Amino acid sequence: DAAADEAAQKRLALGLANTTGATRSQVASVEEWISKQGAALGVTDDELRPALQRLAQSTGDVTKAQGLASLAMDVSKGTGKDLGAVSAALGRAYDGNTGALGRLGVKTKDAEGNALSFDQIQKNLAATFSGQASTAAATFEGRMGRLNLMFGEAQETVGAALLPTLTKLGGWLLEKGVPALKDLGEKVGPKVRE
C-alpha cells in the first residue's frame, strides 16, 4: 500500500544518507532506478529497496551497491533464491565473510581449496548468472509478473496522492471528531436511558 511504500522510501533514503552520504538528488535517482528495474525485470520495490540498502551498508557507495544489486537480481533469478538472502550474502562477502555465499551454493574456493577474493567471486557470479533476471522477465510468467507489478505501482501512486488528504482527515478525527462524538455520547446517553 501507499503508506508502507512511503515508509520504505524514507527508510532507504535515510539509510543511503547515513551509509553513503547520498544527497536528496542521489536518493531520487536511486528511486528512479528502482522503478526502472521493476518495469524491466519485475522485481518489486519492496524487494529491491532493502536489498540495495543492505549492499550500501557494506559498500558505502551507491553506485557499487546498485551494481551488486543488479548482480544479486541475476543470481536470485538464476538460483531461485530470495533476493534478500542473495543480497545479504553478497554484502557479507564484500565485508570479507563468504560463508553465506557458500551456503547458497556459490563457489568461494578454487580447486586447491584456497579462498577466492570477493572480486573473483563477483566475476564468477557475473559469468555464470549474467542476464538471468532479464531472461526471466521475458518469459510469459515474467511478463505477467511485470504487469501485476506495474498495476500495483499504479495503485500505490494513486494511494500516495491521497495520503496527504487521508492524513489530514485522520488528524481531524483524532483531534476533533472522536472528542466531539464522546461529548455527544456523554450528553445524549443519560437522556436516552431515562
Can you describe this structure in just a few lines?
Helix content is 82%, strand content 0%. The protein has 194 residues and is mainly alpha-helical.
3D structure, described in words:
- The protein has helices spanning 2-20, 24-41, 45-59, 62-79, 83-94, 99-103, 118-129, 132-138, 140-193.
- By secondary structure, the chain is mostly helical.
- Helix 4 crosses helix 7 and helix 4 (62-79) packs across helix 8 (132-138).
- The model has no long low-confidence stretch (mean pLDDT 81).
Question: Keywords, please?
Answer:
0% strand, 194 residues, 9 helices, single chain, mainly alpha
Give the fraction of residues assigned to helices.
over 70%
Total E-strand runs: 0
Report the sheet with the most strands, covering strand number, pairing sense and barrel closure: none
The global form is: elongated
Topology as a string of helices (H) and strands (E): HHHHHHHHH
Question: Oligomeric form of this entry?
Answer: single chain
How many helical elements?
9
Rg computed from alpha carbons, rounded to a whole number of angstroms:
23 Å
* Uncertain residue ranges: none
Task: Give the overall average pLDDT.
Answer: 81
